[in-house]
Amino acid sequence: MSHSAMLRKRRNREPRFVQRSPLRTVIMGTIGSLLLMFGSFGIGWLAPISSLRLHPWIISLRYTDGAVVMCIIVTSIGAMALTREWMRLSQKVDWASKSAKKWVTAAIISWSVPLMAAIPLFSRDVYSYFAQGRVYQSGLNPYESGVSSVNNFLQNGADQLWSQSPPPYGPVFLWIEGVVVGIAGDSPDVGFYLFRFVALLGVGLIAYFLPKLARLHGVNPTRACWLCLANPMFLVHFVVSAHNDALMIGLMMAAVYVAARWRTTAGGLGGITLTTLAVAVKPIALLILPFIGLLWAGRGASWPRRFLFWFLTAGVALLELWLMGLANGFGFDWVGALTTTGGVWIWYAPVGLAGFLMRLWGDSLGLPGGDLQSLVQKVGQMAGVLGAAVLAFLGRDEKLIRRLTIALTLVVILNPMIQAWYVVWLIPFFAATGIRSDWHVDFFLLTTLFFMMWAVSDQLDVFPYLSLDINMGRLVAAVVALLYGLYIMFIDPSTRRVFRRSRRIGTIV
Known about the structure:
Layout: H1 3-12, H2 16-19, H3 22-43, H4 56-62, H5 65-92, H6 99-116, H7 125-137, H8 171-184, H9 188-216, H10 221-228, H11 232-240, H12 245-261, H13 265-279, H14 289-297, H15 303-328, H16 350-364, H17 369-393, H18 400-413, H19 420-433, H20 439-458, H21 470-491
């Protein structure tokens, strides 16, 4: 019996709620996206001087307890509904059929469009970009002067944590920040929509190069797009929150594809240049340079040739970064800003939790618990970098991009601070190089579900003078998201099958 015949036989045994048309799933996911958009008007991040705060319908949603609670519930339900429909889509399409691409594309577009109009949710980094752009436009060096060096930085929505901190971004994104502020003027509202446009450029790069990279690895490109581009985590953090990570990852995907597709001098230099641009957005992109050098060196390269091409790769990248620094007048000042987020940790990061427990243990024995915590964090970070370096030296050439993916993963998971959008960095690369149908896809689905539940309760913009305080608002969001998540996993007759490998429909993977 052929593989397609086996799939049809298995589908015939599936209940009707699995076999129904994907159209209903696309529509229900769009409703979830619209709920997210609506909820953002009540609890999304707005700068204190935002002109949107003066609109009567915004006032009606943000300045009464009942309306804010409604927006919190609507946002939580919308996010979890989008997660559910993303899972349901995998049950309703056959990745081998021509119609699969049509349905996945329809889902990506219809789920993304409402989110483009939303007010930023789950993060206010976009306002820090705006504040840093104001510093740049004022003629100051943002790497030496925090955002507090310009007037009304808090009124423009920036987090106070950035008041004296240099931006951990490279010269290209600093220039983008300046251009956005030059266009937006004194309007942070125009600013955040322009930064969303920049993020969408990154999303566009990912959408273009992800299927191409998937084909290079013999992976179904439509399934890869479902795993990544339709993923609610991807949509929330790269579209709604408008993180500059979207542009960085888009450039990294382009670099990897160009270097892998054309393993020539032109392909190598193109890959290096694209990687350098990614570094000039966020310097963490430096991690992939050794792998770009290996792609340039060619298959079966000897060790002397590998070291030669690593040297050439580093030289070309440094030259390009030097020219960028020369153009903006700040040189390599961004290197000193790389420690901006140092010392921050979060409970679900393994190294962060281990460091915290070490601190408690040290304090209980009269030892310097803070120093022990710092030591654990540094050891974890060094282990991540060391593991990435080992992967650059060891492994088969045909697994080179997979090794790059794992190297990036090690650096993320061994960091004491794992922001949800750091995890999104990994999704395009894993989707392109393949996610197996065993525990790999189980872990992927559970990770997406966890971070969506975390996102809706992590950061809310609740007016401080309401009787409903921010902690109570987060609790409401957490309870709604948790209950919906448990429903998806254990009660929903459709999606609970996704988490039972023996009963999972074959076409999910």
